[in-house]
Amino acid sequence: MGQESESEGPAMLDARVRLLHAASQVAGGVTPLAERLGISEAMLRKYVAGVFPLPDPLLLQALDFIEEHREAGPSVGLTEDRTGPGSSP
Length: 89
Fold this sequence. Notes:
The chain is mostly helical. Helices cover 57% and strands 0% of the residues. The chain has four helices and no strands. The protein has helices at residues 10-27, 30-37, 41-48, 56-72. Helix 1 (10-27) crosses helix 2, helix 1 packs across helix 4 and helix 2 packs across helix 3 (41-48). The longest helix is centred in the N-terminal third of the chain and has 18 residues, at 10-27.
């Protein structure tokens, strides 16, 4: 009853918060991301602050959102410099 599972420990919560920060950067802010996820901005801010753990369905939506934008082109702060042989600097 109300207990946190081991999978929702500090490390998992931190990863979910970082994911939300990245997704909000891609979306252009918390408000557009909240609209994209279909939740209120106030609730998203609670997830971003780590007040509540991000539910799995929203986690997957945020991951899908980032992936869609990554496929469309590089996003600031989300990709590493992966310059390989034959690439121009």
